[in-house]
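Design a sequence for this backbone.
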């Protein structure tokens, strides 16, 4: 009984202290001019609303990876290899975008939650390249496929297309990472990724000089590449540009898979 009485006394003390604090707070509030009080309440309400709204406006991270490049580079073969490991002999030409959402074939045996990838293979024919614009706004990364076997005869055309990609408004503003994927490296006569990188940097350096005067039609979508007065390198791009190797026909696609998982988290 004595313990109970002590507890009651302690509760009463706490209650009295709380009432005193509330009384002091109300007294201070009454001393604040109404205008300042209203402003303070408005700021408090606005802050609460903003904090509660932040999760609603967070943009969902994209899981879209876009394959692009000239026709004949092996984009479609890579698409099927990434999807299900299908083996294709020869050239697989696509005139419409191949599109699918799936777990990468190499990850189908992994345990735990794995985020599917939305992969888009955009045709490389010059008349169909505008379709790339449809997918860039949602791209988490872009794989630019280069034919390492027949690179030299197509060096100019490949570099022109890549120049257009790297100066695209979406790529620059969103800093979309680009992987230059040298495909068909299983052939002995295929060029190395270092050789291809250096040749494309030289070609793009010539292109940026010849295109220094942007036409009025392109000015809304075109951005300047490189550093004035310095030879162009991919390291000067505002977005990250890396170079890797692959062989779609043999299924050696680990480097492109690593790129995809780097930008589409599991």
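Sequence:
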């Amino acid at each position: 009984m004595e313990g109970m009485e002590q507890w009651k006394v302690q509760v009463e003390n706490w209650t009295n202290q709380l009432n005193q604090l509330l009384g002091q707070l109300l007294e201070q509030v009454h001393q604040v001019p109404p205008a300042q009080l209203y402003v303070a309440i408005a700021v408090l309400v606005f802050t609460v609303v903003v904090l509660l709204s932040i999760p609603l406006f967070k943009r969902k991270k994209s899981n879209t990876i876009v394959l692009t490049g000239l026709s004949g580079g092996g984009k479609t073969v890579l698409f099927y290899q990434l999807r299900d490991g299908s083996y294709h002999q020869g050239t697989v030409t696509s005139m419409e975008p191949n599109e699918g959402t799936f777990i990468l074939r190499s990850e189908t045996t992994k345990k735990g939650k794995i985020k599917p990838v939305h992969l888009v293979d955009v045709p490389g024919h010059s008349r169909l390249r505008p379709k790339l614009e449809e997918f860039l706004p949602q791209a988490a990364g872009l794989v630019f496929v280069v034919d390492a076997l027949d690179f030299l005869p197509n060096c100019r055309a490949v570099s022109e297309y890549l120049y257009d990609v790297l100066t695209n408004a979406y790529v620059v503003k969103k800093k979309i990472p680009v992987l230059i994927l040298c495909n068909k490296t299983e052939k002995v006569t295929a060029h190395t990724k270092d050789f291809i990188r250096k040749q494309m940097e030289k070609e793009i350096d010539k292109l940026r000089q010849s295109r220094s005067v942007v036409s009025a039609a392109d000015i809304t979508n075109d951005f300047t590449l490189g550093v004035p007065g310095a030879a162009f390198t991919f390291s000067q791009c505002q977005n990250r540009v890396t170079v890797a190797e692959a062989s779609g026909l043999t299924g050696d696609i680990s480097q492109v898979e690593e790129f995809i998982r780097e930008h589409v988290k599991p």
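Residues 53-59, 215-221 have pLDDT under 50 and may be disordered.
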